[in-house]
Amino acid sequence: MRNERWASWTCTVGWAVQGIYNKGSEISSINSLARSPDSSSLATVDEFGFVNLFKNPCPVETAIYNKSTGHSREVSNLGFTQNSTGS
């Protein structure tokens, strides 16, 4: 199913999201995942209060990502806004 084109992606497991986990991390540490509307990015939130932004797809174990803080506690969900105007 690697080449299947899905309308959205929120599953924290699968070929395209293998790289969202750091070495030694557990699957349960990622609370939510969302793919951007243009399919270029993946964002995750975790039990440590971080929001992480990856390129999509992210199939490699040591994927490069941007980590953002701003939450003092566990983040439970996230999503991208739909922006059809391009602004």
Question: What would you say this structure looks like, in words?
Answer:
There is one protein chain. With 87 residues, this protein is mostly beta strands. It has a domain at 15-68. 0% of the residues lie in helices and 24% in strands. It is built from no helices and four strands. It has strands at 30-35, 41-46, 51-55, 65-68. The chain has a four-stranded antiparallel beta sheet, with no helix packed on it. Strand 2 and strand 3 form a beta hairpin. It is globular, with a radius of gyration of 13 Å.
Produce the secondary structure layout.
Layout: E1 30-35, E2 41-46, E3 51-55, E4 65-68
Antiparallel strand pairs: 1-2, 2-3, 3-4
Q: Kindly estimate the percentage of residues that lie in beta strands according to DSSP.
A: 15-25%
What is the quaternary state of this protein?
Answer: single chain
Poorly predicted runs are none
Total helical elements:
0
**Roughly how much helix do the residues carry, as a percent range?**
under 10%
**DSSP E strands, number:** 4
Shape: globular
Secondary-structure element series: EEEE
Kindly report the average pLDDT value. Answer: 85
- Strand order, largest beta sheet: 1-2-3-4
Largest sheet: 4 strands, antiparallel
First-last Cα distance? 33 Å
The gyration radius over C-alpha positions equals 13 Å
User: Structural class of the secondary structure composition?
Assistant: mainly beta
